[in-house]
Amino acid sequence: MSSFASSPVAAVLGPTNTGKTHLAVERMCAHSSGMIGFPLRLLAREVYDRVVAIKGENQVGLITGEEKILPPQARWLLCTAESMPVDRDVAFVGLDEAQLGADPERGHVFTDRLLRARGREETLILGSEALRPMIRALLPKTEIVSRPRFSTLSFAGAKKLSRLPKRSAIVAFSAEEVYAVAETLRRLRGGAAVVMGALSPRTRNAQVAMFQAGEVDYLVATDAIGMGLNMDVAHVAFASLQKFDGRRTRRLTVAEMAQIAGRAGRHQRDGTFGSLGGEDGPGAFTPEEIEAIENHAFPKLEHLYWREGDPDMSSLDALIASLEEKPSEPVLRAAPQAIDLAVLKKLADEEWVRARTRGPQAVKRLWAACGLPDFRKTGADHHARFVGRIYQHLSEGHVPHSWFAEEIARLDRTGGDVDTIADRIASIRSWSYIAHRSDWLENPAHWAERTRAIEEKLSDALHAALTQRFVDRRTSVLLREIGAGLSELPVAIADDGIVTVDDEPIGRLEGFAFTPDASARHADTRRLIAAADRLLVAERTRRARALAASGDEAFALSAEAGQRPAILWQERPIASFEATRELLRPRLKLERAAAALDPGSRDLIFARLHKWLEERTEKLLDPLERIAAAAADPATPGAVRALLAPLGESGGILDRRSVGGVLSTMSREDRALARKLGITIGALDVFAPALLKPEPLRWRTVLLAVRRDAVMSVLPPAGAVILPAGHAPGFRGIGRQQVRIDMVERIAKAAHEAREGKRAFVPDASLATSVGLEPATLNRLMLMLGFRALPVEAGAPPAWRWQGRRRKEEAVAVNPNSPFAKLAGFGR
Questions:
Q1: What span, in angstroms and rounded, lies between the C-alpha atoms of 636 and 828?
Q2: Could you give the domains of the chain?
Q3: Bridge partners, 594 (sequence order)
């Protein structure tokens, strides 16, 4: 067993938040050179960045298992305890969290550094007050300084997750529990940052940065946060007080509870701790535990774990025996078998390993390979196979760069979920460790940079995956600012309608209607809509005024087939129609978002839409306006009113048979008055030709759809005269075709002009042919017009004879008791 060094040694002991680490950094920087060993790679990296800011990048080194930054002139080193080069001559040496010498898994490393790592001029041991008896027993000449905590740590009781104060850290002891708590916080409070020991420094820093910047108010972590990581935490809540320590599930010791709870409060700010759930049960603190944590009174350590730190490398058996040697000091206990020793013993049973491990250099090389950490936690058997392959290559020279390149290329992928990416990071850490062994690869600097780049890429992907899974940034922003008043939040609306709050998109504003962002979870849409209703009041009022000031070109009629008609403003629906007793005067119904505006804004919108609707009706449906006015005028002859009333109700187009009885009572003067009103009394239909133009026909169809509470029918193409069979407005179905009703009248007129009384004649078919009328359609139309086909010789054109329309067809649809039939008898 090695003897202890005799250089000046001091110990600074005390609870968390006493400034011990800060003191060590100050003391190191005051010396010409120095080195500090930390319990975590994350903490070593954090302090490295601080010292670089003081001394400069070329003067500071970082040494961890997977990362080595060692400039040639480096005088100050920040290391993990396992990676400390204890044989390096430096003026100052510090060891942080030295009480970890009592940890069964890693304790022997900290105990070895406590006993062997020394600075020329000063050695500083940092740890818990519980370490005092061990220092007295092992290093009796050490000066011990106690430091009090800067702030008070108080018990705040048990709280439900939904009741936790902001700036809380929730500590769980498994990845599954961390994920479950973080998911719940996402739903309740907009999300949480996640910190676990398995995260790379880059991912951990990105997650902590979210918490520190206030983007999220909660942090969910494993007990990794207990080891000196500095975060602005006000309250620590324990999701559980039990953990699996690699061998069994046990309750945390009071010292472990205090180490974690001590993250609450920083510098002069007080902190609190508590549990999640009820006041009773295994997850609750006992009164004795609370008192001990608040008063920083913990059981003193009675032993530390030890293993020979400078083992005998003369042979493989000598190495194993040296590592299994028992300590001679009463307060030291032999460390439980660590995975590096377990792997060494398994490989020592292999004949090929013994054959290649002859001499101290080969033994040293094998032991170095066994030091490769099991980052993936696969267990001794699986890990031994991996280490064995590494050693096989090392015993032959170097790890082949082709194999190394293939393995890391397989990991250079960022797809997958949180666990998949985290597993790749664990794997790349193994290859990064190999790349940082200067004599294991032919070009270690190249491969170290390559593995670093892959780890950074995977770390960024993991941060993004964690944020996507456990943080709803929109909800977080809204909830964070509700206390200050939503109206004060910075709201921006892009040209495409995207609404952002504090640069976070929450949805789109189209017209007056807000639609939550499509990526928002269903459970969060109500919250986004409620926030938008409050945040967009001013913008919606502004838009209401803009609508009221809009020119006619800003409005349009939506009349798509199969849909209910509506009015558009800036190409967005703003109002629909409801039927009234007057066909030409439908009631406007604002779309839901516009209808929810304040009364003043609604009145502005209604007034402008009514004005636009009146002007369009007057311009496009003037014949219907005149028909309706004449039908209501007592001065109009009764027979004419009897025709106009149903014609107006039908939108200006009627089958002649439906008013046959009325037509039979009309005088020449009555018909002249109808013509003056723009009405054509045709052979088959009564209609206003002006209403057959595309826009008037579209508006007429809209009003009839509103009257029937129906969707829009298919409108004919502009300029169409003949269509396939169907039900287009303004067209008459004849066989397999539809013919526009004014074209029916032109064909009827041409046929009557061609006949001479009731003599047989052959009509000029050029008109019908020019518009695409099929012969069968023309024949059927001639029959409908009152002509009878005559027999002709084969190949000769068809001949027709006028026989007159039958009176019973004229009045087929007339009810003598209808009000229109009675009206026809008035005014004569």
A1: 11
A2: 1-149 (3.40.50.300), 153-295 (3.40.50.300), 473-535 (no CATH), 547-620 (no CATH), 621-715 (no CATH), 717-804 (no CATH)
A3: none
> Which residue in this structure is represented by tokens 């975590």?
40
The whole-angstrom separation of Cα 235 and Cα 294 is: 14
Q: Are 597 and 605 in contact (CB under 8 A)?
A: yes
Give dist(CA 77, CA 90) in Å, integer: 9
Mean pLDDT of the chain: 88
674 close to 688: Cβ distance less than 8 angstroms: no
Q: In sequence order, which ranges of 471-597 are alpha helices (DSSP H)?
A: 473-482, 525-535, 537-548, 592-595
The H or E element that residue 576 is part of is: strand 572-578
* pLDDT > 80? residue 806: no
Contacts 24+ apart (CB under 8 A), 664-668: 664/810, 664/811, 665/639, 665/824, 665/825, 666/639, 666/640, 666/824, 667/639
What is the number of H-type helices and E-type strands within the chain? Answer: 31, 34
State the Cα–Cα distance between residues 348 and 227, nearest whole angstrom. Answer: 36
Is residue 766 scored above 60 in pLDDT? yes
Per-position DSSP letters for 392-403, written without gaps between them: HHHHHSS--HHH
Q: Which residues contact 95 (CB under 8 A, 6 or more apart)?
A: 36, 37, 81, 110, 113, 114, 117, 124, 125, 126
The full DSSP string for 381-439 is HHHHHHHHHHHHHHHHSS--HHHHHHHHHHH----S-HHHHHHHHHHHHHHHHHHTSTT
Q: Bigger pLDDT: 269 or 144?
A: 144
Beta carbons of 605 and 540 less than 8 angstroms apart: no
What pLDDT does residue 191 have?
84
Compute the average pLDDT of residues 193-219: 85
How many other β-carbons are positioned within 10 Å of the β-carbon of residue 825?
11
Does 527 score more than 50 pLDDT?
yes
The reply to whether the predicted model has a pTM over 0.70 is no
DSSP codes of every residue in 183-246: HHHHHHHSB-EEE-TTS-HHHHHHHHHHHHTTS-SEEEE-GGGGSS----BSEEEES-SEEE-S
- pLDDT the model gives residue 115: 95
Dihedral class, residue 199 (left if φ above 0, else alpha if ψ from -120 to 50, else beta)? beta
pLDDT single digits (tens) 407-427? 999 999 998 888 899 899 999
Assigned token pair, 204: 């951990």
pLDDT of residue 486: 46
Structure tokens at 629: 């006015």
The alpha carbons of the chain give a radius of gyration, in whole angstroms, of 46
Mean pLDDT of 742-763: 88
| Dihedral angle over CA of 765, 768, 771, 773, nearest 10 | -120
Q: How many CB atoms lie within 10 A of CB 457?
A: 18
Mean pLDDT of 63-79: 92
* pLDDT tens string 106-124: 999 999 999 999 999 999 9
Name residue 507's beta-bridge partners: 499, 516
Share of the chain above pLDDT 90, in %: 59
pLDDT at 365: 95
Average pLDDT rounded to a whole number, residues 141-154: 88
Cα dist from 732 to 121, 722, 784, whole Å: 110, 10, 12
Check if the beta carbon of residue 656 is closer than 8 Å to that of residue 811: no
- The per-residue pLDDT for 7 is 60
